[in-house]
Amino acid sequence: MAEIAKLQIGDRAYEFPVTKGSENELAIDIKTLRGVSGGVITIDPGYKNTGACKSAITFLDGEKGVLRYRGYSIEDLAEKADFLEVSYLLIFGELPSQDQLSKFHSDIKDNAIVDDDVRKILDAFPKTAHPMGILSSLTSALTAFNPSSVNVDSDEEMYRAIVKIMGKLPVLVSWAMRKINGLPLNYGSNSLGYVENVMSMMFSKPNEEYTVNPIVRDALNKLLILHADHEQNCSTSTVRIVGSSHAGLFASLSAGISALWGPLHGGANQAVLEMLEAIKEDGGDTKKYMAKAKDKNDPFRLMGFGHRVYKNFDPRAKIIKVAANQVLNDLGIDDPILDVAKSLEQEALNDPYFVDRKLYPNVDFYSGIIYRAMGIPVEMFTVMFALGRLPGWIAQWKEMRLGKEPIGRPRQIYTGETLREFKNIAQR
Ligand code: CMC
Question: What is the per-residue pLDDT for 1?
């Protein structure tokens, strides 16, 4: 028998159906609440208890530290899969056959040229511009250069918009980095794999032949997979809600990139490295920073610690920590930042403040150390997160559009002034 939730408001009782997900998660379906109760709504700042949609893409269990894309464990995917395969899995629901993957890749390559006029927009940015701002602006600008990708009313139009952005976003990412490094812009090569091409576009220099380092390639592949989706986080919810007004894919993604930029979300990877640097420069006294993080009068937070949904451990952080050690060893890099990170982690894991609040290292705690070892500038770290998250955003946007979800429009409880009489300026 279907479960029912009962709600009593004053002397009136209401019943609501309880809906169950495929992993037995329960939700009270309050769609009819406002109508039947004469205007009562629920309030949940930060949506800590609110499910915004039903989704078949990513499952995570924050208590058990489980993360799965379309039913496949993140550990398996990070170990065995290629980022493009995972992108296909997220967007289309199944792992691709070789033919499906080859066609997907070939369609992406056919759409990887960014209009040359987009360079002019990039040129107009100051060299000091944050690359997340550049990426968000240029992604939005792509709409103007690809107007057919706005109204996607058929599967065919949606597919075309998807392969376009899968092809063009890596170009924009590389351009953002090349601008920082003062290198001429390029378009990569269609003879390379997706990840290899990203590397070549980012790192190649005009005066030497670029060869892909397999260690760096594997680490980047892993990082992109680990970041590829994370159900209804801040940026993904942004992509879905912007898309729910039937704004186009590129405009929705541009909004998602802006949401990701914040230091409480994707911007944490940059913030972590800057924090570790500052601690090292300050003599490596991790205890001092632990005390600051615990002091309620100090705004300092231990960046890379804590997560809205993981209250045990972040499975991505576990994989990244191992990968960081491996990459530094393989590349023969002795980075003192890694020591600061390890001792900070050790102290936090044994400190009642962090233990009681279930604050553990998150995905961003170690990722910056790998990016740094790869030679990626710190301002680019969140851009790399965006590149990885692209297929997840696309998959979520597609699911929302095909599911014909209504426009996202939360309500509020008004706490301002009640009706007042207007006073002329001389009387105020
Ligand atoms: N350092 C010190 N105290 C913390 C931290 C931290 N990093 N994170 C949470 N707390 C404390 C917080 O002060 C609060 O304490 P109290 O109960 O005494 O008021 C308690 O823990 C609960 O924190 P919250 O802010 O209510 O939790 P939240 O679920 O709203 O926030 C979070 C989650 C990720 C925004 C937060 O933990 C944080 O700011 N972490 C640092 C930033 C970070 O690393 N972000 C990356 C998240 S993972 C990548 C991604 O998905 O984008």
Answer: 58
